[in-house]
Write a structure and sequence with these properties.
Length: 179
């Protein structure tokens, strides 16, 4: 999976303009929140956000931020999962989920050292991922993706338990995002 494929898949989930009262992101278009658009430098109306600008934002602030080009070369479904989590829950959360998963799959540090859960994918996270994929073989990617799905689902449920207004989205999150 490359960025263009991931972006196209994401557009199938995100759609166009939305301004749902319970959405903490406020106005969104193509899944891009107004805050993300403004931070990127977009100053127009959110309803008019061009998909080309959304593409640039997703590339820079999500795909590149999470080092997904490097991950996609070895584990394309993992790259997609991290991209999706990053978009829906934040890149820091996506990175933390990966780091936590890598830590519990390192056989108590025998395969590679534990990572600091800092929410940033850097050389140590990438090295640990490479080590796990090499040691455990082709099934390792599936195991990591399953662990990320579990963390993602629990996070959605806990969010909705803390804030019942988010129940408006829980079914869709569990149906479309946890897969």
């Amino acid at each position: 999976m490359n960025f263009d494929q991931a972006f196209d898949r994401l557009m199938g989930l995100e759609g166009g303009y939305s301004n749902h009262a319970a959405d903490r992101g406020g106005q969104t278009n193509w899944g891009v929140t107004e805050t993300a658009a403004r931070n990127f430098g977009y100053r127009g109306e959110m309803r008019a956000l061009p998909q080309s600008v959304a593409r640039q934002i997703y590339r820079q602030d999500y795909w590149d931020e999470l080092k997904l080009e490097a991950i996609a070369q070895q584990a394309p479904q993992l790259a997609w999962k991290l991209f999706d989590i990053g978009v829906n829950m934040g890149t820091g959360r996506a990175a933390q989920f990966l780091q936590r998963t890598l830590n519990v799959l390192n056989r108590a540090g025998r395969d590679y050292p534990d990572l600091r859960i800092d929410g940033a994918i850097g050389p140590k996270s990438l090295d640990s991922l490479q080590c796990l994929l090499t040691l455990r073989g082709p099934d390792a990617e599936t195991v990591i993706v399953r662990a990320l799905n579990a963390l993602q689902a629990v996070s959605y449920i806990e969010l909705s338990e803390r804030d019942p207004s988010q129940e408006a989205f829980t079914y869709g999150w569990l149906w479309q995002r946890v897969a």
